[in-house]
Amino acid sequence: MAGESTRSLELTTTPKHNILPMLKYCLIFCLSICFALTATAQQQPATWKGFQRVNFSIDGHSAYYVKPNKPLQGNPWVWRSSFADWHTDADSILLTRGMYVAYIDVDNQYGSPQAMQVWDKFYAYLLKNAAFSTKPSLEAVSRGALYAYAWAKRNPDKVSCIYGETPVCDIKSWPGGKGAGMGDTASWKQFKQVFGFTEEQAIAFKDNPVDNLEGLAAFHVPLLHYISNADKLVPVAENSNILVKNYRALGGETTEKVIDKQPQELFGHHFIIEHPEDIADFLMNNVYPVKSVFSYSNYFNKRNGLSNFLYKAAKLKTATVAFLGGSITFNPGWRNKVMSYLQETYPETKFKFIMAGIPSLGSLPHVFRLQRDVLDSGKVDLLFLEAAVNDRVNGTDSITQVRDLEGIVRHVKKANPSADIVLMEFADPDKTKDYASGITPVEIINHEKVAAYYGLPSINIAKEVHDKLANKEFDWDKDFKDLHPAAFGQELYFANIKTLLQQCAEEPVSKIKLKPLPKMLNKGSFVNGRYLAITNAKHDANWSIDPNWVPKDGLDTRPGFVHVPVLQADRAGAELTLKFTGRAIGMAIVSGGDAGIVSYTIDGKPYKNINLYTQWSGFLHLPWYLLFDGDLKPGAHILKLKITSSHDPKSKGTACRIVNFLNSK
C-alpha cells in the first residue's frame, strides 16, 4: 500500500451487524498490535524517515513537527489531524519539497470543543516558536475529519485547503450507526461522554463536518476527498457525498476522487493510493507560495486589557457579556461566534448574554437606551460596543460622538466599576475611501480618543479592511459584499475579536483591579443618558397613545420600535408640553412615509423646525433619534413641541410618532 502497512484506522470498531468469528479474531489481533505500538510510541527517535522530528507537548498532549532539510520561504506546513502514521507517502514528498509536517494527539475527543482549545494552542505555538506560515494545509483521515473540519470552520481564515481520506462527516453515520453504516457502539458511547450528550442530543448535533460550511466557502478553501463506494464503515452517501453537495451549494470548490480498485480492507474503508504525489500537489499548491497577510494584531490595541472580565470568567465562573450596536451587531454572525467561543473556552462558566443590537442605531441612540436595553438586564462584565458605521450614515456630529461614547463608558463603569469594554470600529465604503485618501475617518478618531483616554481595548477593522483590500487579500464586492458583511466579513470580524481575547488571556490574572475614573473628556457627555416615558408629556386632543403600535401602510419596521407604545399625531397644530430636569433633551421617533415637520422651543426660546422625514422613510419606519439640546443648564426645563402644516416634498403627511423622550441629567 504505497509503502505503508495496512494497520486498521478504526481499531475500536464494534459493528452493529454480526461479523464472522474469524473477522472478530483478526480485529482482536490488530488491537494487540496497536497497543504494542502505543506502548513504544514514546521511545521513537527524534527522526522521521530521515528528517529531524521535534517532539514536545501541549497541555499534556504529545505533539511534534518534522523539519524539511531545506524549508521553503515562509515555512509552509501540513497539519495531520489523526492517524499520523497512515498513508504518509504524500507527507514524505512534501518534506522533500521543503514543507513541514505537524501533528498533535487529541484522539478520542471527536473534534470536541476541548480538542479545539488544544488545537488553538498548538497552532499558536508553531507560529510563535517555529515561525510557521499562518495558513496550513489540513489532512483529515477517517475520524480525523471531525477535528480538521471543526477547527477549519472555527478558523476559515487560517486554512489553505483540506484533504480528506474516507472522511467521517456525520457522527450519526459513524460512530452512531444510525443509517447504512456499521457504526461503533463503544465509540458512540465515548462520543456522548466527551460532549456530555444524551442520545437525543447526540442525534440532534448540528456541528458535523457537513454542517455550517459558510465560512469555509466564503474564504474559498478548496477540498479534496479520496473515497471508496465500497466503504461500509463510513458510507460515502452519508458522509463525503453530503458534505460535497452542501459545500458546492455554497459556491465552495471541492473534488471527490473515487478509489474502487482492489484490494480494499476494513469493509472498504482502506484502499491503495497509487499516486500520492497527486495529494502532495494539492496540499502544496494551495499553501505555497506563502502569501503575505497583515496580522490582526496590527489593528487592535489592548491598552489595559480585559483582566477583570477574564478573572470572572476563569476564576469566578460567572460573567455577563453585552453587545450594544446597530444592524451589524443585531444580525447573526460575529456575535454568535464570540458567544460560542467564550462558552467553549470557559465551559464551566455560567454566561449571561445581553443582545442589544438594533439596526440603524449609532452612538446617540446607544447612550440614551443603554440603561433600559442593557443595564436593566444585569450588571455587565464585558461590553462590546460598535457605532462607527451608523454614526457616519446618520450624520452624528463629532462632538456628539465623543459625548455619546464617553457617556456610555462612564455609565457602564458607574453601574459596575470592574466592567471591561471593547470599542469596535467596523468597516464601510466611506471609511475605505477616507483611508485611501490619507484621511482617518472622524468616527475612528473619536472611538480611539475615548478608548485611549479610558484605557479600553479597541479594534479598528475599518483600517484593516482598507489595508487588506490594498494588499489584495480579498475583494470587497466578491467577499465582503456590503457594510452588512457577508459570511466572509463576519468571520473576519470574529477572528479579530478572538485574537484580541486570546492575547489578553495570555497575561496573568490574579484579582479584580479597580481604577478610579479620570475627569471627563467633555463636561457635556451624556453620562446619565436615559429614556423618559411618553406618558410624562401633556398634550392636546390631537395626540393619542397607541399601546401596541403597528404601521398600517405596510412599510418595514425595526425591532424594539413596533408593538410598543407610541405617542402619535398627524394633524397640523397638534401640541405637547414636557417638563424635565437635566442638561439634554430629545426624542426617539419612528419616521415613516408620512413623517412631518415639527417645531419646538425650550424654556420659551425661539422655535426651531426639524424635518422628521429621512432618506429611508419611504420604505421603512426608521427609528430616528433627535437631540433638541445637549447643553442646557442643570435644573428644570420645559419643552414645547407642535406639528407644522408643512412637510418634506417626499412625505405623504404630517405625522409625528414618539416612542421615547431622551434625557440626561
TrEMBL record:
The keyword Signal applies. Keywords: Signal. It comes from the Bacteria. GO terms for molecular function: hydrolase activity, acting on ester bonds. Residues 1-41 form the signal peptide. The keyword Signal applies. Pfam families: Lipase_GDSL_2. Residues 323-491 form the SGNH hydrolase-type esterase domain. InterPro entries: AB_hydrolase_fold, SGNH_hydro, SGNH_hydro_sf. This is SGNH hydrolase-type esterase domain-containing protein. It comes from Mucilaginibacter pedocola.
